[in-house]
Design brief:
422 residues, mainly alpha
Length: 422
């Protein structure tokens, strides 16, 4: 009788937890709905929502000029932006699989509120999985600082409000690394295929992972990636046979419209030919650094591999591939790994430093944002925002590089970097 009661109590606890999570999600969605009703925005989501909805309801290509015009009309109606630019649907067609459930909702405001809820939960998941990746259990005050920075910091809250897919791609990349470590190769290959929904932002990561799995003989990852990507491409061709050419046209137009897009482009815009030479030097230098790190990681152990994966993502933001500081949520796992490695080396002596670091990043990014609202490049997005998070993250990773290479621990140990709340 007693074991039965214990089992029943455990089941009740599960049901209570599920109920709490559901209630929390409902309340969060209601709060988001209140926000979206009085605050226009969500440009990135509106573009993808409109393109997907036009395909589902009217059978129109999301890449067509008519759909692009519909996007402009919706942007004007919702006052989401001033109309000086021409956003267009520029993700691979199979990206609609993520957006279709929301595109079925006719009311954009409600759909945006639900999408924001998904992204907010995804940011929480990114932080949790980043800690899981390095087996780090921080003390409560570090964890609070981490979540405040992640959710309410500039690089977290802006993509949430904009409805940016980059948050889900950050989550997907983390799942790839964790699934690879857990030897769940088929799922890792599938998640790697999912990351191709944002090809420009995720290209270096995908290439690095493919090189790694090829050199280490992880054939199941290769086959599952090819199979999953093949299914996604086949699905797209079945809907619109020539979708790729249409996508390529829109992608190129959207890519060209990103200004400045990289620190090198900032130098070119401000210093002309002199800036162009500096931009080339930076791109070549960063490219050589990435290639060198890739060469060093050939058949390396897990810790060095994960370090290189994070370094690849961070250095890629300065390589010259056009990007936006609004996409820097992709760097969250790297900065958390850098802090975890710092603690692994110095233990409790750096707890205050880590907490202060998150606080400084939080306030510095918001200060730059608020002081440069009239940025000539993009309203509210200053070119100075290319600097703080990538520079700090690179510093943390390279500061710990010697420890990664020399440490006798070739893997992150569940008991090695664990801070217990006392």
């Amino acid at each position: 009788m007693v074991p039965y009661l214990r089992k029943l109590n455990r089941q009740n606890q599960v049901y209570i937890r599920i109920a709490i999570i559901v209630i929390f999600c409902v309340l969060l969605t209601l709060a988001n709905l209140y926000y979206t009703k009085v605050n226009p925005g969500g440009v990135d989501f509106l573009v993808n929502w409109t393109g997907t909805r036009e395909l589902i309801t009217n059978g129109a290509s999301p890449y067509s000029s008519d759909t692009t015009q519909m996007i402009q009309n919706n942007l004007a109606e919702t006052r989401a932006m001033d109309g000086n630019t021409e956003p267009r649907f520029s993700i691979p067609l199979y990206g609609i699989l993520l957006l279709a459930p929301f595109a079925l909702i006719k009311d954009f405001v409600f759909a945006r509120a639900l999408w924001m809820t998904i992204l907010e939960l995804a940011v929480v998941a990114v932080i949790l999985l980043s800690l899981k990746l390095v087996y780090w259990k921080p003390r409560s005050f570090i964890l609070i600082a981490m979540y405040l920075f992640g959710l309410f910091g500039l690089h977290g809250i802006l993509p949430i409000l904009d409805g940016n897919l980059i948050i889900l791609m950050a989550l997907s990349s983390l799942l790839v690394l964790i699934l690879m470590r857990e030897k769940m190769d088929e799922l890792a290959g599938i998640m790697l295929a999912v990351t191709t929904i944002l090809p420009a932002q995720m290209a270096l990561f995908v290439i690095f992972i493919l090189i790694r799995v090829i050199t280490t003989g992880r054939k199941r990852i290769i086959f599952s990636f090819i199979g999953a990507l093949g299914l996604l491409l086949g699905f797209s061709i079945a809907i619109i046979p020539n979708w790729f050419l249409q996508f390529l046209k829109n992608f190129i137009n959207s890519y060209q419209g990103i200004n400045p897009g990289s620190p090198g482009m900032v130098l070119i815009d401000r210093w002309g030919s002199i800036g162009n030479r500096f931009a080339i030097i930076i791109a070549i230098g960063i490219g050589l650094m990435i290639l060198f790190e890739w060469w060093r990681v050939y058949r390396a152990e897990e810790k060095h591999f994960l370090w290189t994966a994070m370094t690849t993502i961070v250095l890629g933001t300065w390589l010259g591939i056009k990007n936006s500081p609004m996409n820097y949520v992709i760097l969250y796992p790297a900065v958390i790994m850098g802090c975890a490695l710092l603690y692994e080396r110095w233990k409790g002596r750096v707890e205050g430093i880590i907490t202060t670091l998150f606080a400084l990043l939080f306030f510095a990014n918001w200060a730059i944002f608020l002081l440069t609202l009239s940025s000539e490049y993009k309203p509210g997005i200053s070119s100075f925002l290319f600097i703080p998070l990538p520079v700090v993250t690179v510093f943390l990773l390279y500061w710990s590089k010697w420890w990664v290479l020399q440490s006798k621990k070739v893997e992150f140990d569940p008991t090695l970097i664990e801070l217990q709340s006392k």
